[in-house]
Amino acid sequence: MFEFRRELKRLFQAESLKDGLVAGDPSLLELLELNLLMSEAKAADVGAARIGADDRPTRQLEAAAIWREIARRTGDAVALRKSASAAELACAGFGRDQRPQGWARARCEQAAAAVLGAELFGDDGLNAAADVAFAEAQVAGKQSVAAPMADLGRAMIEARTAVASCDRAIALEIAARFDAPSEALDLHGKKRPIGRLMAAHARTDRAEFLAACGVRLKDPQLLRMAVDGLSLILTRLDRDYEPLSWARAITVRAAAKAALCDLDGEVGVVAHVVDDLVSVLEHVSRDHSPMDWARAHVALAAALQMVAEAGDSAPAFDQAIKSLDRALSVFDIQPALLERANALYRRASCLLRRAELTGKVEALDAAEAALRAELISLNPSADPVGWAVRQLNFARLYEAREDLSGPNPKTRRSAAVALSAALDVFAEHGLRSLSDVALRGLERLKEPT
After folding, report:
1. How far apart are the C-alpha atoms of 352 and 365, rounded to whole Å?
2. DSSP at 20
């Protein structure tokens, strides 16, 4: 694999990238490490701006797709804005009435950038805007690949907005909406490889939705459906030629398997989950895709935390914390990322559980000192979500103290203030899962001692 990538670097020098997208096939982008992908994006911009460029809107559409892939791998809002801007120019160039199929594809690209922005930064307004764009693309691109792309986009938006509240029947109904457009993209994949890859991405999205519902509903059937679906996807992916799609499918499957093991009480199976995630980290480097690398570390930390909880193992907690530190080294570059807040919370949970294992107040004192040191180094106005996560962690610390030392009205008041402040910030930034954690904490404080 490494020899193959070195040969790729030789072939994809700046000179060969001067006209933008390599060989006109976006499926090749997965093979490029981030520095080469940046060169590809800049070359695509140059190709689109060149006087006398052949089919300028198509070149702009290609540039939009590359910048969106950079944003997906890095969480960079600037790259995401460049993607949205290029897609907007492509829409204007195609014209809804002049070239409706090209216009529909560009509108889908605009919507995809908005969906990615909502995923990375938690802005529900972006999902609403994307849904409008996908609906318009459905109408304009009925006879083109834009139609299944738009169908899948709208299904994805519905899935993400429903995951926090739907029951099993609704979850299955939403999941079924992915099937027909995924098959349509598979058919398109017989003409262009990108169609098959897009179908794999859609099926991974479907499985991730089912897994999220399975975790929330504590429903092993939904989790098994997710695991089985991902295992089928992986039989169709080549980890050497589609490394990032393969890595994402393995990571999502590992998280679903870990959740299933937790429900079934078969913690011993988590060792296989850890092996899967280690294989991802051995195959996909931080230089290739920082966000995919970081997400694999977060999933690995969750699996290690399960092992630590099952065996009361402080060393396993230590390994989980190290994995989260590696993930945060990526997430901290973009402080507004939703995943950063969740990783911070999980890290503090590991820190506190490790302290609780000792059953000594001194261990909690050390954990509190570490949390206070983090808080002192933080600028609340620059990183309000990070500040709120620390408040949530302090509330958890106060609860742990009560468990060891008995009820304390002063401690309870401090925990309530911290949770209320955190809840306000989480609600403002659309962090539903952390808002739920804060609300549950406030409800526990209302219980009689």
Report:
1. 10
2. S
Q: What is the mean pLDDT of residues 2-10?
A: 50
CA distance 325 to 318: 11
Query: Which two tokens mark 165?
Result: 């509240």
150, 134 Cβ separation under 8 angstroms? yes
How does DSSP classify residue 21? S
Please state the pTM of the whole predicted model: 0.86
- Level-2 CATH architecture, domain 1-162: Alpha Horseshoe (1.25)
Residue listed under structure tokens 């849904």: 131
Question: Would you place residue 435 in the very low, low, confident or very high pLDDT band (cuts 50, 70, 90)?
Answer: confident
DSSP state of 178: T
Confidence of residue 5 (pLDDT cuts 50, 70, 90): low
Average pLDDT over residues 39-47: 91
Burial of 259 (0-12, 13-18, 19+ CB in 10 A): buried
Coil vs helix vs strand at 359:
coil
Q: What is the DSSP string of 51-85?
A: TT-TTHHHHHHHHHHHHHHHHHHH--HHHHHHHHH
* Ranges of each domain in the chain: 1-162, 339-449
Angstrom CA distances, 116 to 112, 202, 232, 270, stand at 6, 14, 25, 30
**Which residue type, as a one-letter code, is found at position 361?**
V
